Amino acid sequence: MKLPADSNATGRDLGREEIALLKEVIESGTLNATKGTMVKRFVKGFAEMYGVPFAHAVTSGTASLHTALAAINPDPGDEIITTPITDMGGIAPILYQNAIPVFADVDPVTLNITAEAIGPKITKRTKAIMVVHLFGKPADMDPIMAISKEHNIPVIEDCCQAYFAQYKGKNVGTIGDIGCFSLQQGKHMTTGEGGIIITKDPELERRIRLFIDKAWGYGDPKPDHYFLALNYRMTELQGAAALAQLAKVKNVVKRRRETALMLTERLKDTPGIALPESTRKSVHVFWKYPLIVDTGLFGVDVVRFSAMLKERDIFSAPRYIQKPAFMCEVLRDKRTYGKSRCPYNCPSRKNEKEIVYDIDEYPGTMKALERVLVLPWNEFYTGEHVDYIAENIKEVAKFYLSRKEKERV
């Protein structure tokens, strides 16, 4: 069976609505959001959906996180606590603001960072906590927000994979100080590339708005370029696609959840497979569908488990990422600005403890990556697709269990 893919039209809800709005933009001749209407309509609608006063669109999810960090405004050498299981787009913006990523360990089942792991990482240089709601599963926010309040440290929520995921009835992205979203190809809503940022704080909103547009104070009595900033403006073409997608996103989330929960039901009694859960306090929205595979029980690693599924036309990502972020060369060797190794070795860090990434401090992370197998998911999966996936996962699990049993004998 050929499964729908979010890399093309088989797995993405794109069509007449997007084409009609894109046609309007082309016929208007105005492709820049400064003079256009599509981006303005999109951000207004997004803010209303999330019940927040402020939203701003940018060019990518990475840009949304960079803008959020710029709004927090760390000094060179300040520290940002985040997760080691994330895309580099969530790490590079920290370094680009001359701050240092400090990693907290994750829960080995949810793969999200925890308050217990964040606490010991806080120092006098901690400027923000960046929480990633991985795969659409909300992190446990109450204890994280308690730490934030205790130390007066702002929280940035990376919701790039978590549109309308809920924690205790609240949409993630509205719990911390700033919420960041991606509109990349495979996200719940897409413009190919793009991002959006929300906040309730008017001071943060002003810095967000300025940073997106070279810190030029449009509308101010005496505008100027107030601080170092970039051009992250979304185009009207992206805005048109985003506006059409905005009308669909809640239904997309609903459809993804429905089929994901079907798979959970089909696999619930499968030995050696732990399944993602929605609980009474959180609603999972399934950007992807992560399985935790008991590699010891099966006697095989997740790469081999994945390979057998691939033989049956079920593609998956074993380990999700091949190694934790801190093991990537850019961080391991501190390859940042020329040969300076800044911000790690900048004068602003003189007489301060050196930041060292010790793999032994991350047992949850290593255990999670050894066992997680990530299935793609999209809004065009049907019950028939789910049955096919479930049947084959069970068969692969049964094969390896049987083989392990024979080896014991």
Structure notes:
The chain has 409 residues and is of the alpha/beta class. It folds into two domains: 16-248, 3-Layer(aba) Sandwich (Aspartate Aminotransferase, domain 2), CATH 3.40.640.10; 250-320 and 366-408, Aspartate Aminotransferase, domain 1 (Alpha-Beta Complex), CATH 3.90.1150.10. The protein is 37% helix and 13% strand. The chain contains 14 helices and 14 strands. It has helices at 16-28, 38-50, 61-72, 92-96, 115-118, 141-151, 202-212, 236-246, 249-267, 295-298, 302-310, 329-332, 363-371, 383-408, and strands at 54-58, 79-82, 100-103, 126-132, 155-158, 166-167, 170-171, 178-182, 195-199, 273-274, 282-283, 288-293, 317-318, 372-376. It has a seven-stranded mixed sheet, sandwiched between helices. Strands 10-12-14-13 form a four-stranded antiparallel sheet. A three-stranded antiparallel sheet has the order 7-6-11, with no helix packed on it. Strand 4, helix 6 (141-151) and strand 5 form a beta-alpha-beta unit. Helix 2 runs parallel beside helix 8 (236-246), helix 3 packs across helix 7 (202-212) and helix 9 (249-267) packs parallel to helix 14 (383-408). The longest helix has 26 residues, at 383-408. The radius of gyration is 22 Å and the shape is globular.
